[in-house]
Amino acid sequence: MALTIAVHSYKGGSGKTSFAINLASAYASVGKSVCLLDVDLKAPSSFNYLLPEAKHWVNDIFEGRYGVMDVIKDVSKEMGTKGAFYVGYSNPDILAVREVSSKDRKWQSKALKLLMTAKRDLSDAGIDVVILDTGAGVDFTSVNAIAVADYVISVGRPGASRQRSMEQVIGGVYMPLDKDCYIIENMCHNDNPTDLSGKKFDLPVLASIPCMCDVAVRCDNEVLVLTEPDHSFSKKIYDVMESLDKITS
Fold first, then answer.
1. Number of independent structural domains in the chain
2. Membrane-spanning regions, if any (predicted)?
């Protein structure tokens, strides 16, 4: 079965998507077969980073119109990765975003089953790692992705208010779903771990990534682990990948 990792955050602006893209790229760069699915249907953004041409969308999977193998696109040649690198985009059109916002719980229940089927199909196709770039917060679609995942990586920025928000998500979502959870402290003021792990839950911090002005700008235009593998940000991503390999082996 493919290793499935949900990359989540309790609120927007944490750097979740750039982290998810770089982590997926890191796996593909070392020869793993990887699929990155943008399941943030209400604020999709992966199309800004990775070759936006798409015939079908992740939305089509949840509507039952297409299977995941019809939706994903192999970008390994364009990205220059050793392993196969598949991407599935959510529809960024404002009408599609509005449509998702109107869905009820019955639709979400069906979408959960379809996402589980997509995970199985990707595994059957030989995918080694599935990265789910979730929406921020506790929207049903995000909770579905967390429920399907084997592991959850919560990306957060330091600060007392953010810590309280993270603790609410950990206690209200991750723990009830009995998920193995890990924290990425992003955009820290220095290279030392901050307080996001919290004394209440004591979750492992896989990396503390300092705030780097160039990363915020350049990750909008390039995948640093591929263009600059020796960059300090890239090294942090590879460290996370190696830590996950030890955890999951």
1. 1
2. none
